Amino acid sequence: MTRSDTVWRPSWEPAEGGDLAYVFDPAARLSRDVRRVARERLDDAVETLDRLSEGDASTIEEGVHDVRKRCKEVRALARLVRGPLGNEFERFNVIVRDAADVLAPIRDAQAVLATLDDLRAVGSGVEPDLERVRGIQAAAAEQATHAIHSGDARIEHARELLVDARKRVKRWRLPDGFGAIGPGLARSYRRGRRSLREAIERPTDECVHEWRKSVKNLWYQSRLLEAAAPSTLGPVIATLDRLGEALGDDHDLAVLVERLAADPHRYGGALHAINAIEIARAQQAALRRPAFRLGATIYAEKPNAFVARIEAYWTSTLREGPELTTGGITELAAAEKKRAKAQRKAEARAVALVPPASSDDGVRNGDGDALPADTPSAQLAF
């Protein structure tokens, strides 16, 4: 049973694409919450890898995508506490990055195919060059997916790396309070401002991709902090999500262009490749202009001002408590019914997750370590 199943049920819903298991509770000990989120995300990734060989093609593709997302979430979290982690940050970051990279070829093959489908969907008619390229890429994507099997060396290697990362998290010793994450948040925001400026001045695929990574990193970190001010941070998170999607499509187009340029004969010859590249480049131009404008809004503040604002939200929540549902009489009544229903479901789920008691089983403390069954904390777990 995890903390998120039994303890913290805020009155608000996370922003679209969010997950309460990936949100800090400002009232909790931050050091424990950081470890809790990291462990749960890594555990989920390992469990997903264990199920990969049992699914069909679509399940495998979704599973690989989910594992890579968990890796990105954990790396973004680690960047928030980069200072307190010291040298351990680099070691941990490389381990999780390598685990995601092992799975990248599988994901890239599917992403390129999805990008071709998107281009076909927005086209004015049937593009023979795209159709030919798409058919060849579909075969490559199918081959990449079917290569996954029980005992696959890539899956086993990724699993070993993530298990190692999980063990490292248990040894993290971190301070509490916003001061533990403020410098990491400032670093992320500053990097995003700088990479946006570079992408505008030099809009190469590489520069835009660097900015994309910064945007996604800020999106993950903002999700972690959403409970400090959901009314304000929720819309920001949703905006970062849309911006990240636009830049993600831009990156997938860049990967497509790179593959076509590197081996045009594989895709039916130079003429087909050149025409497909022109279509992809035109779509990138359409994506980048609004993305740059939205980025100017997201990164309008100075890094120190941005972090000071988030810290003020965090401090206000600690002092005044979490935000409450606000609205008229009928809105409040509806919200209360929804909250009560969610609470009943959460309590039922928590009861279902409680394992049968045995003589040698105890509950676990906040770090996942076993406690004797007769200790006060074990007796008061519920």
Which key features would you list for this structure?
382 residues; mainly alpha; CHAD domain; 0% strand; disordered C terminus
What do the pLDDT scores average to? 84
CATH architecture: Alpha solenoid
Note the beta-strand portion. under 5%
Low-confidence stretches: 1-7, 359-364, 370-382
Structurally, the number of domains stands at: 1
Please count the beta strands (DSSP E, at least 2 residues each).
Answer: 0
The first-to-last residue Cα distance is 11 Å
Percent helix: over 70%
The CATH superfamily bears the name CHAD domain
Total number of helices: 14
What CATH calls the topology is: CHAD domain
**Secondary structural class:** mainly alpha
Could you say which overall geometry the principal axes of the C-alpha atoms support?
A: globular
Describe the main β-sheet briefly: none
The ordered string of helix (H) and strand (E) elements is HHHHHHHHHHHHHH
Radius of gyration: 23 Å
By CATH reckoning, the class would read: Mainly Alpha
